[in-house]
């Protein structure tokens, strides 16, 4: 099939004078935010210069078309987007790395993806780094300014031949497994289907063809924001840069003045925005004036859903993953169905979940459940957004790990997770509980008999441990916790902030065998531990809410 950049270039050329991107100007003082408009034509010209630059510099290091090249970026610059697509236009496969990465982590990632060269923001690499010893590949630096890139002196080479399932771009999970993010290659077939089919079904507020302007969600090192170029350019739409995912109200109102007419938000921030709107008529009017607000990452609380519907706010829920793109969206025309969603990805299938009942759901999902059959979301290998073969968790396809309940024919509601990954932290990013639990059990084998991590949709994770020896005094407990923290300290440094256990308040001690377990296998039941110790956990979480 054609390389995904073939039709991206065609799409960019169709709307040369339209605005593609509004870059946030970061003021040095506390003045109002402002933006600079960048046209389709400007972006097309810039990525062409970037492509020529990287062809010239990477071929010197023996990098060939379709080879993987690491791109370690801040994720907040317009130039980051230019270099992602410039490298793709040059025929390479960008492995996009965010600012949280480290040289040891990149070395481990390159071992999995076959990365040939690391291209880095200059400030990320110290003078003491030995490329051969520390990473095993050359390190090149991103030019400080796009204006320094020379214009191509000859036509760029043709894009390389690709198969539908070849890697086109590589992103990473928001959490880590044993301290290393999981690389998620997006294939050419995957990107094409997301851009040309799924996003048109996700944002359907202006069927009359009116240009859409949405906000970016997250940093440009994340798949949702980085691939916005592909799906917006296909229809001549644009997006506006935010300072952060949970941007302030003043910034939201300022974006409306710039032309924002649809929102894409994580559910926690949307809930806070609705709380503000209850007492701020300007914010309420702004929300009501938007063509569509798509929220993702979690369910809203029922009170927010009802209130938003009563106010006439055009709210839709969206379910997507880094591995499988968009799968379900609430139809805008169907009122009062939140958090219900319908399938928009033609490759999705629901298969009954085995070995899990309603009582094992997290508290919020259990409260909402209607007692029906729970389903896993499955994408067979021939589905357009089935993940790359290196990511799939089934021989014949991929299960997302999230649970759903069919509440009406064809209408599905999210009901939590069916595996060891939970969402936690300020932005409810993924956390692989099992890898942390396994490390505690290995490094503290003489101290800890068993343990479990809890904190689904909470500000931090908490470790419950059953001690090998009885703990008989506060002094013994403090010494016990300090020993655990000391032994996992090195492991913590490899984890992303929301995955770390760094304070004694994040450890709860329990007598051996006292934590609730499953009948058959005797595994500690995460949800049951949260329920049984809900008051203790509430106090712990309250102590961290103002520190994250």
From TrEMBL:
Residues of the AMP-dependent synthetase/ligase domain: 34-330
A GO term for molecular function: medium-chain fatty acid-CoA ligase activity
Domain of life: Eukaryota
A Pfam family of this chain: AMP-binding
Transmembrane residue ranges: none
A biological process term (GO) from this entry: fatty acid metabolic process
Protein family: Belongs to the ATP-dependent AMP-binding enzyme family.
The protein, known as: Acetyl-CoA synthetase-like protein
Organism: Mycena venus
């Amino acid at each position: 099939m054609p390389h995904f950049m073939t039709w991206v270039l065609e799409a960019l050329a169709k709307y040369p004078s339209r605005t593609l991107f509004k870059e946030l100007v970061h003021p040095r003082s506390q003045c109002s935010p402002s933006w600079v408009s960048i046209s389709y034509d400007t972006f097309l010209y810039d990525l062409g210069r970037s492509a020529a630059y990287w062809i010239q510099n990477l071929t010197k290091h023996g990098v060939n078309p379709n080879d993987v090249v690491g791109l370690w970026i801040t994720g907040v610059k317009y130039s980051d987007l230019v270099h992602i697509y410039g490298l793709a236009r040059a025929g390479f496969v960008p492995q996009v790395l965010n600012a949280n990465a480290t040289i040891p982590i990149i070395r481990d990632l390159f071992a999995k993806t076959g990365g040939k060269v690391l291209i880095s923001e200059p400030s990320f690499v110290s003078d003491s780094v030995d490329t051969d010893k520390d990473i095993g590949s050359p390190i090149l630096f991103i030019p400080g300014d796009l204006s320094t890139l020379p214009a191509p002196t000859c036509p760029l080479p043709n894009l390389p031949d690709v198969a539908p399932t070849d890697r086109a771009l590589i992103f990473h999970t928001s959490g880590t497994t044993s301290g290393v993010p999981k690389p998620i290659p997006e294939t050419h077939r995957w990107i094409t289907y997301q851009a040309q089919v799924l996003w048109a079904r996700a944002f359907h507020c202006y069927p009359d063809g009116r240009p859409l302007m949405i906000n970016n969600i997250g940093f440009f090192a994340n798949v949702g924001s980085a691939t916005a170029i592909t799906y917006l350019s296909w229809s001549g739409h644009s997006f506006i840069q935010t300072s952060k995912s949970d941007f302030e109200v003043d910034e939201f109102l300022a974006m409306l003045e710039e032309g924002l007419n649809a929102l894409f938000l994580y559910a926690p921030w949307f809930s806070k925005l609705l709380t503000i709107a209850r007492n701020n008529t300007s914010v309420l009017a702004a929300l009501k004036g938007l063509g569509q607000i798509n929220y993702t990452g979690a369910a809203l609380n029922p009170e927010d859903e009802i209130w938003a519907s009563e106010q006439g706010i055009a709210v839709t829920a969206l379910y997507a993953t880094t591995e499988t793109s968009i799968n379900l969206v609430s139809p805008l025309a169907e009122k009062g169905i939140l958090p219900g969603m319908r399938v928009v990805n033609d490759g999705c299938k629901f298969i009954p979940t085995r070995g899990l009942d309603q009582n094992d759901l997290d508290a919020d999902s259990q409260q909402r459940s209607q007692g029906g059959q729970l389903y896993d979301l499955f994408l067979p290998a021939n589905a357009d957004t089935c993940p790359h073969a290196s990511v799939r968790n089934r021989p014949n396809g991929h299960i997302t790990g999230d649970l759903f309940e069919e509440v009406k024919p064809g209408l599905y509601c999210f009901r939590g997770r069916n595996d060891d990954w939970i969402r936690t932290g300020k932005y409810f990013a993924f956390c692989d509980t099992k890898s942390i639990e396994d490390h505690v059990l290995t490094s503290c084998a003489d101290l800890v008999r068993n343990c479990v991590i809890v904190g689904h949709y909470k500000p931090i994770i908490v470790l419950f441990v059953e001690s090998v020896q009885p703990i008989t005094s506060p002094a013994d407990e403090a010494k016990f916790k300090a020993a655990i923290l000391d032994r996992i300290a090195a492991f913590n440094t490899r984890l992303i902030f929301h995955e770390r256990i760094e304070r004694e308040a994040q450890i709860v001690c329990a007598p051996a065998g006292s934590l609730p377990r499953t009948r058959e296998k005797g595994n500690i039941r995460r949800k049951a531990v949260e329920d049984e110790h809900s008051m203790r956990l509430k106090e712990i979480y309250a102590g961290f809410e103002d520190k994250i």
